[in-house]
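Researcher: I'd like a structural prediction for the single chain below. Treat it as a standalone chain; there are no partners to consider.
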Amino acid sequence: MTNKIQFDEKRRKAIAQCSRCGFCRAVCPIFDLTKRPVTNARGKMILLKELMEEKLSVTDAVAQAFLRCTTCMNCTVNCPSGVDPQEMVKHARKEFVQLGMDNWFKAMAETMAKYGNIYGEEKRVDWEHKKGNAQTVLFLGCVGSYREEESVRETLQLLDILKVDYTLIDEVCCSGVLEDVGYKIIEDLAKQNTREIKKTGAKNLITTCPYCYRVFRDHPAYQNLGVELSHITQFLKNFNFEVRTQKRVTYHDPCDLGRHAGIYEEPREIIRKIAPNFVEPLRTRENAMCCGAGGGFRGSFPKESVRIARNRLSQIIEETGAEILLTECPSCLHNFRNARRQKQKIEIYNITEFIGKLYREKASLGKEAA
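Model: Treating it as a single chain, here is the predicted structure.
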């Protein structure tokens, strides 16, 4: 086996197209934290050029440098040369693995195959929402199911209040994240999810996790689901909510929901219905800064990931003065909650979780009044 990365014509062109201008430094969350040139897209494109021209050898240190990327796509959106560095990073990761340079995610893939989730959890919460047959399947994803259970519980209660005909399934990890870190999706898990979804006879599939949404939408392993796919913000945007908050509310655009999936308006439409005092951070929509959770970065560098989330959270608080930070991504939610300092009084929720909480508080006040 040759110890060289293979570059097709498309990727050779992309490397030549990169002008090494450094615009990406201003939007890279890892470079913002470390100030190390190799951590931003410019640095990685230079590494790829050196590898392509065989001026640099493939080593473990070089391979690990490509794990320092959240694949947030901010560099891609802001590249004046029209290069897609995060796609180049994901391709390089696969090439390194094919050369036998397994990274830390080999163990995660084995865990996923054995337990059906990224955490190796043997049991999942019984949410008591498996009807078998329903119009809609709700897919929760790993982070919501195993790390943000309270958020999921509020979301389920909200759907119940809105009288949505939905069911949960015996889901397993969509396993799409493996494609971002050098490995392949686990076909058996994809087949199990497909079987479980089809068993319900549902016409709609809703995901709470924007990454799962992207995998179901784009990956060939899920091409034959036979349902209309929506992220939960798309599904709920036309509902009317009988609750309001007068608190100052802001919103963080998840990279997977925004830049990767193009879903910007739906979350805002929902928020404006329940929060008249809605304010935006300075960097928002396609220019929103990453929370540091994506692209396998949280799994590889957990301390740095939390520090990135802490930086982003401090920016948001300073720019908006908000009392409530909303997002709609279990990974962003989890990272922000881990990053929040005790002295920071801002409350952090998923949108659906927060609306469910407002309904619960309204019901509690009604009981007290009675």
